[in-house]
């Protein structure tokens, strides 16, 4: 709401004001009008439509949102190029000494330097240029097209059109010249028929006809002052307008899909129609036939060559890519022919031999064959078993069956002799009887041994001595000898601690008595004993 001033309103007035705003937004009430008579959009927020208090606006308006401060010095005009204002007949004091114009000096003169200046000759006085000085705004200073006249670009268009017309005219003359020479050569030839001459004359007449009256395919239609501005050129499509559009060939909804964005219809719109009567078979038909397939193979070859490290790019250097592809095809055909010749030299060529009889080629014979309802042969032809690439019915070592034809106790063997050892010599039925007799004899021996075998005796544990010898049960130690052995063990230990008391020419005896062994066992240190440090 674009209110003029913020005055105090009662609750009832405020409610009415809100209802009025809602009615204006719903279109039930007319929109608010500003001081210039223009309607104010009721959907504009209040913080935008309400004017500041210091403007003292009495009527609703949106003038405070517009640029109301404008500098009158700014202009959008441009210099008048090449305009002249006055041309004097005599030299004036202070004018250019070279050309005689008052608007510049001799140092800034753009005319050709004269041998004798206009100051001394009073001849050919140049007119004064129109000098303008005006201040541009921010956009005018940065407008790169300021002062440009778009109508001058028609000169460039006319120049290019003149060149194109001259080129077409030259090509037409060359075409007519070639056709006339061909007609003259055929007229001089007695073998030429009258029908061919009429066709050639017709070709010459067609060539003389203006291109715009023929198919009018390459005509450029210009549209000047379009909505986007400027002039545009649109080239006509090569399809004749009398032809039926592809999306109108079959109006069935479930027929081939037509994409209006790309103008493509990949499938055939009329798959059941006669191919001779159809002129459009779908875009896929054109992609998979003719030169499109060759171009596809060329692209694939360039991609594979680039992946293998060859400097080859279809878009950057198409001529190079095509040349390399042709050389690749030649090398591939040459290699294929060499491989074919090598195989034929090694194995021969069956096609060059005598011709095969017609009965074998066509697979026909006069033999009668009968079949049952399941398709099995009943009479007239032997059942042929399919054979593999491996050798069949080849038995080694006098066997009559193959390995794997017998199975017993999780072992494979030969069925003829029931042997489970591969590449063994076949013994036939005698070997089977001998194996059975040996098995029975072995079972009988095992049973007899189990019956006569006694229960095993318990093995008594022997007490091992410290030196690994057996200690008899009736061993008795002498107490006096054991005490002497203990004293002797203490004395030897003291001598080991103090090497100064060690005597020369010490003699050791390897005969150890049971008392000495018992004394050593009693006096030895147990390293795992926690009280070993407290032992005397």
Automatic annotation (TrEMBL):
Predominant localisation class: nucleus
Q: Does the keyword Lipoprotein apply?
A: no
Task: Return the Basic and acidic residues bias intervals.
Answer: 177-190, 489-501
The gene behind this protein is LOC104750354
Question: What range(s) does the Pre-mRNA-splicing factor SLU7 domain occupy?
Answer: 136-405
Q: Where in the cell is it found?
A: Nucleus
What family classification does the UniProt entry report for this protein?
Belongs to the SLU7 family.
Region feature Disordered, mapped onto this chain: 21-44, 177-207, 489-508
> Which keywords does this chain's UniProt record carry?
mRNA processing, mRNA splicing, Nucleus, Spliceosome
Where along the chain is composition biased (Acidic residues)?
A: 191-203
Q: What is the lineage of its organism?
A: Eukaryota, Viridiplantae, Streptophyta, Embryophyta, Tracheophyta
Name of protein: Pre-mRNA-splicing factor SLU7
| Subunit and interaction comment | Associated with the spliceosome.
Function of the protein = Involved in pre-mRNA splicing.
């Amino acid at each position: 709401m674009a209110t003029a001033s913020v005055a105090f309103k009662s609750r009832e007035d405020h409610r009415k004001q809100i209802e009025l705003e809602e009615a204006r937004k719903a279109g039930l009430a007319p929109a608010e009008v500003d001081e210039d008579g223009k309607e104010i959009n009721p959907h504009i927020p209040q913080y935008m439509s309400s004017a500041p208090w210091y403007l003292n606006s009495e009527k609703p308006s949106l003038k405070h949102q517009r640029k109301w401060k404008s500098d009158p010095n700014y202009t959008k005009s441009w210099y008048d190029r090449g305009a002249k204002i006055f041309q004097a007949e005599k030299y004036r004091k202070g004018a250019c000494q070279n050309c005689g114009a008052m608007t510049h000096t001799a140092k800034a003169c753009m005319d050709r330097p004269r041998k004798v200046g206009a100051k001394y000759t009073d001849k050919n006085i140049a007119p004064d240029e129109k000098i303008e000085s005006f201040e541009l705004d921010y956009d005018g200073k940065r407008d790169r097209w300021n002062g440009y006249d778009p109508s001058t670009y028609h000169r460039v268009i006319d120049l290019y059109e003149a060149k194109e017309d001259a080129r077409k005219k030259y090509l037409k003359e060359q075409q007519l010249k070639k056709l006339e020479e061909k007609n003259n050569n055929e007229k001089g030839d007695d073998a030429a028929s009258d029908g061919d001459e009429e066709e050639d004359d017709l070709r010459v007449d067609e060539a003389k006809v203006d291109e715009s009256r023929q198919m009018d395919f390459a005509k450029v239609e210009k549209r000047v002052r379009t909505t986007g501005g400027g002039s545009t050129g649109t080239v006509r499509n090569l399809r004749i307008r009398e032809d039926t559009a592809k999306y109108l060939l079959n109006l069935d909804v479930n027929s081939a899909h037509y994409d209006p964005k790309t103008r493509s219809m990949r499938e055939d719109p009329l798959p059941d129609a006669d191919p001779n009567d159809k002129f459009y078979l779908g875009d896929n038909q054109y992609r998979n036939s003719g030169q499109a397939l060759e171009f596809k193979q060329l692209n694939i070859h360039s991609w594979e060559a680039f992946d293998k490290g060859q400097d080859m790019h279809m878009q950057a250097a198409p001529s190079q890519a095509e040349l390399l592809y042709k050389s690749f095809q030649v090398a591939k055909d040459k290699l294929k022919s060499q491989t074919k010749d090598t195989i034929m030299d090694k194995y021969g060529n069956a096609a060059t031999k005598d011709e095969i009889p017609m009965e074998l080629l066509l697979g026909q014979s006069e033999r009668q064959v009968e079949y049952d309802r399941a398709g099995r042969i009943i009479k007239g032809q032997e059942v042929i078993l399919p054979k593999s690439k491996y050798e069949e019915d080849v038995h080694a070592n006098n066997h009559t069956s193959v390995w794997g034809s017998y199975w017993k106790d999780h072992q494979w063997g030969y069925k003829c002799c029931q042997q489970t050892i591969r590449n063994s010599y076949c013994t036939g039925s005698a070997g089977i009887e001998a194996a059975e007799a040996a098995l029975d004899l072995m079972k009988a021996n095992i049973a007899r041994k189990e019956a006569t075998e006694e229960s095993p005796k318990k093995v008594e544990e022997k007490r091992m001595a410290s030196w690994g010898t057996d200690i008899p049960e009736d061993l008795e130690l002498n107490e006096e000898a054991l005490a002497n052995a203990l004293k002797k063990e203490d004395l030897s230990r003291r001598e080991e601690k103090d090497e100064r008391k060690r005597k020369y020419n010490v003699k050791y005896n390897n005969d150890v008595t049971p008392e000495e062994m018992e004394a050593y066992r009693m006096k030895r240190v147990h390293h795992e004993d926690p009280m070993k440090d407290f032992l005397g």
